[in-house]
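Fold it.
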Amino acid sequence: MSKLLNSFIYLLKLNIIVLSGLLVYKPAFAVGTAAGSDVSNTATVSYSLGGNNYSVNDTATFRVDEKLDVNVAWQDATNVSVNTPDINRVLTYLLTNTGNGNDSYLLTADNTIAGDQFNPSLVNIYLDANSNGIYDAGTDTLYNPTVNDPSLNADESLAIFVVNDIPASLNPGDLGNSQLTATSNTLSGVPGTALANAGDNSSDAVVGNSGATSSDIGTYEVSNIAVAIVKSVVINDPLGGNQPMPGATMTYTLVVTVTGPGTATGVVITDPIPTDTTYVANSITLNTVAQTDAADSPTDESDYNITNAGNITVNLGDMTSASATQTITFDVTINLLLTTFSSHVVADIKLKTIAEMEVKTTNPRGEVTIKREPVKTIVPGTEVIYTIKARNTGKQNANSVVVTNPIPKQMTYIEGSAFGAGTDITFSVDGGKSYAKPEKLTVKDKDGNNTPATAKDYTNIRWTFNFALEPGKEAAVWYRAQVN
């Protein structure tokens, strides 16, 4: 009986050992169990013999192997629209560790994939540093192979950005492919291939169904999109007509539309102010909404003479064929530039500028007389009176007469001193590029904020005559300024 019992126990242990051997083989195909986990199973047999109760147990233990699997998936919803040429265009991929342990991956990009019309030019690969899934230039991490290969835990994902340049001279609709491949740094190849003690917690590493490598192709498409601008002008002259004469106001309208598939990125409209005209301050509108001349985004996206000298600039952002038509307007006036140098004749107008100062005299009776005399000697604080006389020496009426005068840099305009009967008087704070009434003029303070301009900010004065200067007639305008 004793021999029989011992034989039974031996066979029981043998069966358990064989069973254990079968269990050791299977974890390489397990899904979800962490690599390196120890799994134990204890079997127990109880029996009675000769009135006594007995029990025998045995434990089989195995360690779960690390299954090496990975997946790369292109994330852009449609082909990425590009221009020709174009730079720094981004394709977005998602790298996922589909194995059951931690692994790191070597990344490579291939732009010579067949089936397209052009090969993009690789710039760099970037790793999503802030995990927002969006490429952030200057924030996301530049990938350096073998130096910062991405390391992911089981089921962890990371966005990868492949940045390419697009060559010139392509055709609308041309496609360019870029393939991203991720390969396990632990082991790759035929599924089932194993490497002892290479997995987590010294488990064996076993190549999974993906071969421990995965790739996907992203595609660029040369845009068929077209941005069209139609420009028109409406003229209002001082006589109530529509003639392009000096003094007339010209309102330009630019209508911007987009047709075709794709996205026109970063649409910016610039338009230079025509020669012999003066831009009307703060006259820009976008879709009937008034814009400022300052570069004050996000208040508005328009400016004058800041982003581009001598131009109005309007940033419309990204546009598609579904975008609403964008309408921009701005005003200019046609100049009749009469220089302020003495004794000039321009367009049958003889112009003379006189600089005088007031001199007080007292006679023996104590009576004070104030008279104007030509400037001879001046010192800081001296007040000078500038008189500008315009005489029509021609045989026809001079219409839309405009006199402009820059205030000398060494002098400051005396507030309220400008005068000209029958004229509209406006001032400039930008060297004569634009003019407006004092209450509409602004300048930047030390913090870059707009603040109302004062007399000391004025750089130029303009008198616009509201009457025709008849042959032989003379009109005078004047202002005062103080020597700094």
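Residues 1-31, 337-347 have pLDDT under 50 and may be disordered.
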